[in-house]
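DM from R.C. (forwarded with permission)

"hey, sorry to bug you on a friday — could you get me a structure for this? deadline for the figure draft is monday and I only need the backbone to look sensible"
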Amino acid sequence: MALLDRLLDEVRIQVVPTPVERKQLEEAIEQLLELSSQITSDAPFEINILHLGSTSRDTWLRGDVDIDIFIQFPLSTSKQELEKHGLEMGHKILPDGHEEYADHPYVKGTFNGFKIDIVPCYSVNSPEDITSAVDRTPLHAAYLSNNLNEELSTEIRLLKQFFKGCGVYGSDLKTQGFSGYLSELLILQFGTFKNAIKEMSTWTVPVRLDFNKSEHYFESPLTFIDPIDPSRNVAAALSSVNLSRIQHYSREFFSHPRMDLFYPLPADPLTKDQLQSHIDDRGTFPIAIVFPTPNIVEDELYPQLKKSLAGIFDLLTRNGFTIIRNDVFSESNSVFFFELSSLKIPSIVCHHGPPLSSHIHASTFLDKYIKTDVYGPFLEGDHYVVEKFRDFNDVVSLLNSDLIFTARIGPDIESALRDHYRVLSKSELLSLTDDFGIYLQKYFNPNL
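My reply, with the result:
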């Protein structure tokens, strides 16, 4: 236990912001609030400016700072007016900012070197008045400010860094992990980082946590009922694999405590020679579909990428190809990566008809194939059988045909593919290491 405590003492030094960082942040927030008040002073509504998020309750990690400024509008404001005026104000506060979209648009940019979100929302006093998810944030802030103290804030920082080190920090649809708010609630529930990790290491899924013993239930690997809104599961974004991952690492923390659970060493990109070596050793036949990444926000992009990956997987398996494993990588270009047992399969496929005892159906099958370009019909046991020619017996040819657009593909992914895509195989795959070496390193070394 002494080793654990020494490790946590070292991590505390790393996660708690320095006095210089705090001073710079405080100055930026003060200037930002003053500027925001000036810009919104002549608004045709009664406006409240709120500083929210982890920087407002001192649970932010050193070196990882996002300042959230919320502009509250009266409930009588229409959604169109809120979006119009909210974006106008946001752009005046952050002239170089850009728009992103959650439940409604907001402005994202930088100020004094810090990342800033300017978020319009409605002023609500209870969950019953909530119109969009961001309306809850001020209520979350009020709840946490009444329950947190300096000691708990440090424990929250430890937990956030642990989640970050394990690759499960963030509730965005790319990560599907633990949000900052969920991290804070877990420390409120269990009191300390060690207690929280100990509990996680022994969880039996599904897990349910609820301060107020509400009657709301959710189909989710982890349910944590929002203490200010019992109709919401704070852990809804958490995937089952990420819950399993944190259970694994929680056990690792107690059995083999080490700093790289919090601060993992960066992986080296896979080289061309290493990629070729993996392919040779595994005896598989990878292919890659490469296309320009659609210009949409990540929470729209990643669901479409995952849906499209699954859709093309189904297309290939329906056409007789065996896939060992697959993944998707995304930067300025995106890649659907499939590792197959073979690039080519036999030109024919065996197709069994109904048994002869099913007279009508058997006769229909016989009539359908008796004069077609097939081998047969012939008998196999009590069934008619034919051997048909496949439309495609080469996976590259299949994927370069219009058949790819019969797969279940996200709309923005389909548009990107119709504009341009390439199918890479054999030596062509080695070029992927230029932009996707880190992804390929993780793919071919799939350690936890």
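R.C.: lifesaver. The domain at 21-128 is CATH 3.30.460.10 (Beta Polymerase; domain 2).
me: no worries. Residues 101 and 297 are 7 Å apart (CA to CA).
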